[in-house]
Amino acid sequence: MLLRKVLILSTELLILLSVRSWLANGVASPLTYEVTDRITGNPLLCDRCPPGTFLRARCSSTKKSDCAPCPQGSFTELWNYIGRCLRCAVCGRNQVVKKECTPISDCQCECKPGYFYSQDYDMCVRHSECPSGQGVLTKGTPERDTVCGMCSVGTFSDISSTDQICTQHKSCSAAGLQLVLKGAIWHDNLCANCTDLKDGAEYLKEIVPAFFIHHKIKMKRLRRVVNKLPSDNVRKQEGTLELSFSELHSRIRSWVSSATPMQIRQLPAILIKLRASHTGEKLQKKLNRIDKNLLRLCQEMIGR
């Protein structure tokens, strides 16, 4: 009995595929099909069933084909003589229904927001984030991934994002301020007011979170850095062993918001001590440049 059902379903599938093939090759699907009459043994031409129906009983010498509507949750999209309608598809992982199933067409699925179909993986995967220093040229769609591009001269992006474009560096002079650190592709210009002068580390802290995002430090070392951040709090923060990259960067942002200038100035030395010498030296150079420009620019203003 089971074998017979399998054979029937296989035959129906072959019929459906044949009809699809005719259509794909530009051949009109015939509205009849030939059978042998069970009583007389003579050949008969029976009517096919229209889309949205299936063949409940085939024709004979005395009656026409008996077609019935597809039950809910099933469909036929072609003229056919199959014994049951095809079951509507179910959307897969990270997919949503683009078009509902109807009696004459299967449902259509597409990747849900934030995902696109990858042929390499044959599934919907997350849109790529453009790293800091790059902006989004074309936002991702259900069919295509995000397209990123390096920020051009005079623009920057200080986060990883699937939708942020590069932003123009702010103009210090337009606001009546002094440029103490020229912007890069991963951070904005830093401006100072010489009449309300602050410690150079106060300006540096504006770009410290972006610095750690752009200069990718390995997870293990970044955890050690976060554990070594100087703090006035007697009670230490909770351990970092289980924290993800985003959580570690959140810790850094939180620390920067309350850190004193002296604590900010200790940061390059902490990185160097934890064997991130190249990164620590880069941060120290930024601080040195700010200090030097503050001294030069503000002295020039006072001397005018």
UniProtKB/TrEMBL annotation:
It comes from the Eukaryota. Pfam families: Death_3 (PF21733), TNFR_c6 (PF00020). Disulfide bonds join 70-85, 88-101, 91-109, 130-148. InterPro entries: Death_3_fish, TNFR/NGFR_Cys_rich_reg, TNFRSF_decoy_receptor. Keywords: Apoptosis, Disulfide bond, Glycoprotein, Repeat, Secreted, Signal. TNFR-Cys repeats lie at residues 69-109, 110-148. Residues 1-24 form the signal peptide. GO terms for biological process: apoptotic process. It is found in: Secreted. PROSITE patterns: TNFR_NGFR_2. It comes from Poecilia mexicana. This is TNFR-Cys domain-containing protein. Residues 69-109, 110-148 form the TNFR-Cys domain. One of its GO terms (cellular component) is extracellular region.
